[in-house]
Every structure is written in structure tokens, then in C-alpha cells.
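Sample entry (215 residues):
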Amino acid sequence: MDYATIDGWGSWGNADYQRGNDVGHDQSQYGYFAWNELDPYSAFIYGFGDLNCHNKYERSWFINGNQMPVCTRDIGIFLGAFLGALLFFRRGHNRWTIRDSFLSVFPDEKIKPLYDNDRRILAMWAIAAIAVIPIGLDGGIQMLTSYESNTISRLLTGAPFGVFITWFFCSSLCSRPAKFSLDASKVILPGNARLQLLPESPTPKVPAEDSSEEE
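Predicted structure, serialized as C-alpha cells:
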């Protein structure tokens, strides 16, 4: 918490900073800020932003002179999270496993080759990489070098990450074998593929010890 109070607990953003800046986030340019002085509704929103975001003004958007409670990258993540949840709500299905439920948002005919060649996990990892690598590169290079990304790049790299988070989360919640009465043959997959449960390994029998005493 950096902006809970002006000079008490959670006031790092309004205080002198050890690196020599006048205040933690150069907040003096816009005036000191404490979200606990706002009405309960606004305080909750800005408190949530304070908990999850650095709140740097140069990486945030302003509306009517008010800095938004989160930076542009977080806006991209939250926007993507909404779109990912909406995507699964409209197109996702329970297909027993997380990977099959995750891929169910695509038309069956488009992902049939993934089932024909059993590339479902590979497809999930590829989608995850597409979502994570851009935000990792943009933030990582910015942290390690003098490169400074702009608001548009932060928004565009945050959105795919947010989409993947809720897409995967919804797939995890939706994957319920109990809905099929634990009968994998009832699951309809692209290309007439079928789930097959591995047979349980028989428990090896341990020979009984001979308790008779040798004479």
C-alpha cells in the first residue's frame, strides 16, 4: 500500500524516497493523495488499485484530471480478463479435461488435426507462450535496460495475458468429469476422438509370512 494515507501507514508514495526523489512516485507534481479520504466506493476501487499496481502517473491514464486507479498495463490485463471470460462463456464447453475444455472455444473442424496427431497439450503451451512472452519481454527489457515502453504497448501486451488467465481459469472450473457420470465415453471430441481412462494397475499381492517355527 503506497497511497492509503498522506503521512501514516501505507504512505510510501507520498513520502521522501531513499533514491533522492522528492517523493516516492513524484506525486508532488500532482498533489498528495490518500484513498482513505475518499467515499467508500471510490476508496475501495483506489485501494484495490494501490494493492495491485505501482500507480506511477507516467504509466497511467487520466480522465477528467483524475489518475486511474491502475496503470495502462493493468487496464490491458483486466480488459483481456473480461474478454477471456466472455470468450469461454460464449464458446467454451465442459470436455472432462482442462486441455480439452480449454480448446473447446475453437470450432471442432479447426482443431481436428490437433486430435488426429494428439497435439492438444502442445497447442495449449503455444497459446500460453503467445500470451505471456510479449508482456514478459516488454516488462523485462524495460526493467533491465533504459528502454521505456509506451502506454499502447503496455495495453497491447497486457491484454493477451489477461485473456489467457481467465480462459484457463474458466476451463479449470468447467472441467468436471462428474457431469458425465465419470464415464469418459460420453465426452464428444473433435474428429470422433475419445477419451480413454488408463486401467488401474493391480495391487501386487504380498505373500503371507510363514509364522511357523522351524524345528
